[in-house]
Amino acid sequence: MADVGPRKVAITEETIRLGQLLKLAGLAESGGHARELVQEGAARVNGEVELRRGRKLRRGDTVTVEGETVRVA
Fold it and tell me: Which of 13, 18, 32, 55 has the fewest C-beta atoms under 10 angstroms from its C-beta?
């Protein structure tokens, strides 16, 4: 089977904060868990470690946590 790429997570607004996306995508169980992941450097945005939970993401950005990647759609 062909690799279909990252799972897409649709947003309704122009942007979404990293912490919110982690919860929406199921990569974090709660806001506190999202904060821990970001503070530990476990979140990558477009391949770069991101330490700001409030980082604004736009459609097309990718987020990777613990080997799972999602794309903002």
Answer: 13
The 3-state DSSP class for residue 19 equals helix
Question: Strand pairing partners for 68?
Answer: 65
Beta-strand pair 62-65/7-9: unpaired
User: 12 CB contacts (<8 Å, ≥6 apart)?
Assistant: none
pLDDT tens, 1-46? Answer: 556 789 999 999 999 999 999 999 999 999 999 999 999 999 999 9
- CATH code at position 47: 3.10.290.10
Residue 1, domain member (yes or no): no
